[in-house]
Amino acid sequence: MTSVPIQVNEVTKRFGDVQALDGVSLTVGQGEMFGLIGHNGAGKSTLFKLMLGLIPVSGGDVRVHGVSTAGAGFRDVRRRIGYLPENFVTYDNLTGLEVLRLFADLKRVPRRECEGLLERVGLGAAAGRRVRGYSKGMRQRLGFAQVLLGNPDLIFLDEPTNGLDAEGIHDFYRILREVQGMGATIVITSHILAEIQERVDRLVILSSGRVAAQGTIPQLRAQLVLPSVIEVSLHPGYQQEVHGAFASAEGLEMRVADDVARISCPPSEKVAVLQVLSTLAHAVRDISIREPSLEDLFLGYGGHHA
Amino acid sequence: MPKFLDCAQVRIIAGKEFRDRIRNLWVLSVALIFSLFALAIAYFGTAQQGTVGFRGIDVTIASLVSLVIYLVPLIALILGYDAVVGERERGSMELLLSMPITRSEILLGKYLGLSGALAVSTLAGFGAGLLPMASQLSTADVYHYAGFVLSAILMGMAFLSLSLLVSVLSTDRMRASGIAIALWFFFVLIFDLVLTGALVVSDGNLGSGVFGALLMLNPADIFRLLNIFSSEQVQSMYGLATVMPERLTDPVILTAIMCGWIAAPFLIARWRFK
């Protein structure tokens, strides 16, 4: 297969007055594990729905395996897609096995695959029980089994580990690696960067409907210089004095609350800030310095800083 | 060339809906209600005249018509209002739409599955209800009764089609159920009242053509007419026969219009199902 799994070109999406996506472009390569990061409301789910052809674009176009999601030929592409919605909700009155068989039928996947898949996601023993009695984690496992039906070559996972316990998350990524090893392309969203940063090959950070940054994690780090944060806890009554000492300093930001001053400054200014603080030794109880983590990188891109 | 309608997908959805109704005992409950009513009316329908016992199929059908005209639309509306809005509200619709299936196939599958449940319960209910009287029925009686049951199913399908439209247009289940009940009030209670009122106010000058045409705007009335004009004996029990224009007493035309009532709301529902 030579076609590019996903191409998103200058896509915009409006819901009434709300601009959910604004000129988003990205490409996902064959066999890639691609992360989509953003705060709630940044447009991740909307972008997902567009890539799945669930809703029409307002502008631009989305191609999956070279086929426009708006076109009539997209049905055949859908057979090769596995999708796990953010909240996997299904038919509570059916058993896990029945639910899986229903989706197997719709995808033209032999029903005999179903039992094995349920075993694989750890639901073998619960296959004959109604979904109504499933826990959140079990439902998510069932959703994941549904994703794997028919060995899809393109997998969309929207906040897939929601509701899973530590063991569940571990199992989930183990299976996902197996699937990726077989050549599947995977797109995964999360609002928790820490969870997927080790696992994705590349990621896009969405912020207010725009691509704030995209690339590998080292590339993203290099693109953005994030401020160091110096946290100073003060003896009571010195807030004003400390505030005054930094009032004229440029390029740094300071917030004081409850006898704690938080100073964010460019890494190069750190020493200068500490020098000023040393002249205020009588007021300072403790100092700690926090270097920008990837989480901050994400938060920075996510609208608080960018 | 991609297929416009993949029948296999329609069948899968229809099968699921139908099985759901079998499993949650919906079909059995409705069939039981219908059979009890059929039995009671066939046997005790003439109790007011001081007698009990089976008095013939025409009288039975005439009594059943007045009952079914209330019951079947209500059951059909309740059956269908949740079909789309319910799945949307619970969240399962999104996953369904991500499958290799079109909205047309989903909607048609749901409609056919629910229609099947309605048809089976109606058929079984009214069939079983009259079994004790089977030995007293002639072949013509059986045909006549079958016609009544079939027309009841068609009316049910028309109201099911309406409820599916309500389900597609509604933003939440509460509203959908409210609109479904309002539709029932309108078609079953208010419509005829307004029409009768108009007839009286116009001092009977409302032309039979206009009056007949207005009756076609209500599937419940079409059902009533279908059952009146299929029997001489029943016709004489109603004064309506004299008011209706000739063409609108033809069961074939009435059935065709009823089919229009099945198709039209469904097609609008498909158009609005986004």
Tell me the span between the first and last alpha carbons of chain A: 38 Å
Shape verdict of chain A:
elongated
Q: What structural category characterises the helix and strand content of chain B? A: mainly alpha
Strand content of chain B: under 5%
Unreliable parts of chain A: none
Radius of gyration of chain B: 20 Å
Largest interface: A-B, 26 and 18 residues
What oligomerization state is this entry in?
Answer: heterodimer
How much of the sequence of chain A is in beta strands? 25-35%
Low-confidence stretches of chain B: none
Spatial sequence of strands, sheet with the most strands of chain A: 6-7-8-3-9-10
The tally of beta strands of chain A, per DSSP, is 14
| Number of separate helices of chain B | 12
Major pleated sheet of chain B:
none
Strand segment count of chain B: 0
The secondary-structure element order of chain A is EEEHEEHEHHHEHEHEEHEHEEHEH
Largest sheet of chain A: 6 strands, mixed
The average pLDDT of chain B is: 88
Q: What series of H and E elements makes up the topology of chain B?
A: HHHHHHHHHHHH
Share in helix of chain B: over 70%
Mean of residue pLDDT values of chain A: 87
